[in-house]
Amino acid sequence: MSKGLSVREAEAYRKGARESAKKRSQPDADTLEAAAKLTRLLGFSVEIRRRGKGGEVAVKFRDEGELQTLFDWFHADLRRTG
Questions:
Q1: Which pTM does this prediction carry?
Q2: Which domain holds residue 51?
Q3: CB of 44 within 8 A of CB of 70?
Q4: Residue 61 covered by a domain
């Protein structure tokens, strides 16, 4: 063991690291609700991942046609607002 830990201590350390990663990865109720609303609005599966004060919104598509639909929506909105 590089840190001088026993096998049992190393296992406990790994278990604690995995459990804290699981806790961090659980979205809160507001985030889940926002993702569900976006999913209904867009008709595409949406996942929201928080990172500090910001985060990411992932929109899942199944094929090139769905990707093109998403691109067209964003492009049309940018032309309208920009």
A1: 0.61
A2: 27-81
A3: yes
A4: yes
